[in-house]
Amino acid sequence: MNAVAVPIPAPAPPIPTPPVQTPKQRIEVLQKTVSASRLSCWVGCRLKFYFRYVLQIRKAASPALHVGSVVHTVLQQWNMARWRREPFVTQRFKEVFDKRWPEQGKINWDGEEEADKKQGWALLEMYFTETPIKSNERPEAVEVAVESDLSRYGLPQLIGIIDLVRAGGIIVDFKTCGQTPTPEKAAHQNEVQTSAYAVLYRDGTGKQEQGIELHHLVKLKIPKLVITQLGPMTEAQRVRLFKMMESYVEGLAREDFVPSPGLNCMGCEFFNECRRWS
Question: pTM score, two decimals?
Answer without folding.
Answer: 0.89
